[in-house]
Amino acid sequence: MEVTKKMSIREVLLINPGTARIFMEFGMHCLGCPHATAESLEDACAVHGTNADELVDQLNAYIDEANG
């Protein structure tokens, strides 16, 4: 499954919990907060002042590598 900017943090964590490290690197430390289940990655990046495309690229690369 490919990560998109429209997915929530929770959806990505359900695909692969190891992605938490990437979210932390992007300054998203509230992985369990209500916003993590409701807002899109694009919205979360806007709030945290980070690049959504870069986050999605790193998440997909991590998941691809983990799935071998």
N-to-C SSE string, H for helix and E for strand: HHHHH
Reported by name, the CATH topology is SP0561-like
> How many domains?
1
How many extended strands?
0
Quaternary class: single chain
Overall mean confidence score, pLDDT = 94
Write down the overall geometry.
globular
Query: What structural category characterises the helix and strand content?
Result: mainly alpha
Helix content: 55-70%
* Rg, Cα atoms, Å: 11 Å
Can you walk through the features of this model?
This protein is mainly α and 68 residues long. The chain has a single domain, classed as SP0561-like. Helices cover 60% and strands 0% of the residues. The longest helix is centred in the C-terminal third of the chain and has 16 residues, at 52-67. The two termini are 13 Å apart. The relative contact order is 0.23. The mean pLDDT is 94.
Brief characterization of the structure:
With 68 residues, the chain is mostly helical. The chain is built from five helices and no strands.
Observed structural traits:
68 residues; mainly alpha; SP0561-like
Chain-wise SSE layout:
Layout: H1 9-15, H2 20-25, H3 35-38, H4 41-48, H5 52-67
